Amino acid sequence: METIKEAIKGVASGNTSAGKTGMDKGDNDKIRQLEQYRIRFKEGDTMTTNQGLSIADDKNSLKAGIRGPTLMEDFILREKMQHFDHERIPERVVHARGSGAHGHFQVYKPLTHLTHAAVFQDPAKKTPVFVRFSTVQGARGSADTVRDTRGFAVKFYTEEGNWDLVGNNMPIFFVQDTIKFMDLIHAVKPEQDWEVPQASSAHNTFWDFVTQQTETMHHVMWLMSDRALPRSYAMMQGFGVNTFKMINAEGVARFVKFHWIPLAGTNSLMWDECQKIAGKNPDFNRQDLWEAIETGNYPQYELGIQVVEEADEHKFPFDLLDATKIIPEELVPVQRIGKLTLDRNPDNFFCETEQVAFCTAHLVPGLDFSNDPLLQGRIFSYQDTQITRLGGPNFHEIPINQPVCPFQINNQRQGAHKKMIHCGKTSYDINAIQKGLPREAGPAKGFVSHAERVDGNKIRQRSPSFADHFSQATLFWKSMSAIEQDHIVSAFTFELSKVTMVEIRQRLVNMLQNVDATLMRRVATNLGIDGPTEPALPGYPKDIYAPSPNLSQLSPLITPKNTIKGRKVAVLAADGVDGAAVLAMSAPLLAGGAMPQIVSLRMGQLKSSTDLEGGKALEVNALLLGLPSVCVDAVYIPGGKESVTALLKDGQAQHYVMEAYIHCKPIAASAEGVEVLSRLGLIPKAGGQLPLGVYVADSATADFAAMFISGMMKHRFFERKLIDTIPA
Ligand code: HDE
């Protein structure tokens, strides 16, 4: 008997087959390399110690007498306990909470004119990658759906060595100079005396810092926008943030900015949902990524670049080296140059996702750094932090960090956890004893820094070209749709309401007047503040950019409304449901890459009011409380008198629908299911128009399913009227 649950590959029960098979065909050098380190138990295996000794009894420690004290001699107990005692390593100082996946990258066309990096030459070549997504502020066990910037770090295992593009889901950073990074992070992390709040920017120290370090304004605008609340790691953009360089074989260098554009669109949660999900399912984004890969709905992203000729370095109203600025796409278009596919989950979270070590200094020939003062500090910090986190300088030997090309062909020796055995007598260059080996590769093959001329006095100063802290914040605000602007105002209001020091709220209002008068006025009103207490900076708000449509995540270019891949749909049902309708709706949803889940009042199998073809059964995937409405993207209520009667008697079921409604989600009901919507007041009396994104029909026909699916492609119906007045 096939059940719906089986049809969706049992993701709810943690079946882990699909995502592991895709890449075992030997077409991914990294997966093949990792195979030698994998341990899989097979029938007949018996337990051993770490020294290979067979263990006879793992249930009882060695005692002096059956009720006597445990013996120090019990080395088997000691090994087990001591290993456990030392199982934790320090979490990352930032980006501690993360989720990883394997995949590959393919370039669309050779980029020979821009760079000689091998990863960008051959469209037939699949370069293995490991990607880690993360939040920034929270600890390892914090919730996924907090308001935060997200990390988007990609390790390319290229034939010329590892290249790490360590990016974020926002294209700019809070500060311009590395020396302010440590202050920023201390301010945003939980306050030092009482370690509160966890994973949140809504507190005194963060806003104290940002309202005094005004270069933060642009990033703060992004942080207060829906970009800080991604629905899924598969549905957020990524950016390299810093300006890098591409160098071609002729030695010509160009500035470049990197972008990742998700093919599933850039979609967000609502703040009310985020807060509820943080309690209901703190692993929301992690689970979503895992399930997408397990069900074969592989997350995909296009890599985009913005290229600026060296000669044009100074032609913009901002400095290319200032990481608090974007290059608006209207000034330099984004060229899409390749595709990233994530198609395999890790086998072991600790070994892969936790131990992976990203570093901006992991670069390949054909790429180089710019003099961005933030990037310059990053080049040092990432390598350095791994030494504490991973316990020494040999972290490159950890399997997930090993390149797939020859590496460690050098004279570095020893250090904690050294694994590779370098043979021979010498460990220095130049040696004659070992025929001078290993020899340098020379400029034809080896990495050569671009020969940029640098000349200047030693000086601790910010370049005047970094002085404009507000005009791109204005650009961002202007480029938002009305609903996105509303969300930004609400976010500022929420965050500053959590700031207990009134003078900080006032400073924020003073600061916002340099961005936009309406924004400032709206936030001030919500905070009960009369207005600014000091004048705006001379010349601000500075409106020097045309609106940039792609900054709005509702833009069809970055969020084409043509897919439901990765969306979850709750099918609300109880005994007596019309099973045929459930199957009729589920089939096209599954075909589109969505996951229908039967959500009910109890677990087990449901009785169907209609005969199910092929003896299929309806197995419940989750309870109403187990998969609450905030954790799904859309709701379907099929017919079946008995089922609908049971739902209408249940307060949770009714709350489910109303909550989905206020979160602007598509809702469909067929046959008797429509009664649920009528009772909740969502169906207008005689002849009125249905609310946006609400679909009803007499039966679950293919046309009806198509209508619902096209609603799901829109993600949310923010234009829905009066949702603020509904108590759900
Ligand atoms: Fe990081 N950052 N960062 N950062 N960062 C780290 O390195 C740092 C910055 C980013 O999944 C740390 O291995 C400095 C910008 C990501 O493992 C640390 C500065 C961007 C990750 C560090 C920045 C990022 C990190 C902590 C300012 C977007 C997680 C653990 C000069 C382009 C990578 C670690 C992963 C992690 C330093 C600013 C992205 C301490 C000094 C800008 C995605 O080395």
| Biggest pleated-sheet summary | 10 strands, antiparallel
Helix content: 25-40%
Cofactors and ligands: CIS-heme D hydroxychlorin gamma-spirolactone 17R, 18S
Parts with pLDDT < 50 across at least 5 consecutive residues = 7-19
Through-space gap between termini: 39 Å
Per DSSP E runs of 2 or more residues, the count of β-strands stands at: 18
What name goes with the CATH superfamily of the largest domain? Catalase core domain
Q: Give the DSSP E fraction (strand runs of 2 or more residues).
A: 5-15%
- The chain-level structural class is alpha/beta
Supply the number of structural domains. Answer: 3
How would you describe this structure to a colleague?
The protein is of the alpha/beta class. It folds into three domains: 98-401, Catalase core domain (Catalase HpII,  Chain A, domain 1); 468-551, Hemocyanin, N-terminal domain, CATH 1.20.1370; 568-725, Rossmann fold (3-Layer(aba) Sandwich), CATH 3.40.50. The chain has 20 helices and 18 strands. The strands form three sheets. Strands 1, 2, 3, 4, 5, 6, 7, 8, 9 and 10 form a ten-stranded antiparallel sheet that branches. It is globular. Residues 7-19 have low confidence and may be disordered. CIS-heme D hydroxychlorin gamma-spirolactone 17R, 18S binds next to strand 2, strand 3, strand 4 and helix 11. GO terms for molecular function: catalase activity; heme binding; metal ion binding. Its cofactor is heme. Its EC number is 1.11.1.6.
